[in-house]
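Provenance and format

Records in this collection were gathered into a single text stream. Each protein contributes a sequence line and a token line. The two records reproduced below are adjacent in the stream.
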Amino acid sequence: MSRFQCIECEHEHGTATGCPRCQVQGAQVEICGSHGARHVHRCPACRTLTRSQSGI
């Protein structure tokens, strides 16, 4: 199951469509399963997540 982090309050949760804590719709970033919310440039999983979230 994917984990997400809210851009507004930085709460980690399992909902892609909105934050259950602050109720912000959208603005959710998928967390890498290997190391969490911090983007690691050399990680292939982070690169895939970045491409899918940016629409590239």
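Adjacent record:
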Amino acid sequence: MPSLLEAAEDELTAMAQAAREAIDLRLQMSPGEDGVSFWAAVAKLYARGLAEPVAVPEECAA
């Protein structure tokens, strides 16, 4: 399997869509407005950006 950096744009789009669908399915099991709150938090963090690069654990770097 190629690394994420080597994956084609359509593969990344498909992986992102599958991840969103999995998250949405899980959030449907939560009470109330958890889904709306979750995606609002994601949007807020995405807009803010990361202050510093995220370290990748050695076991994930391979």
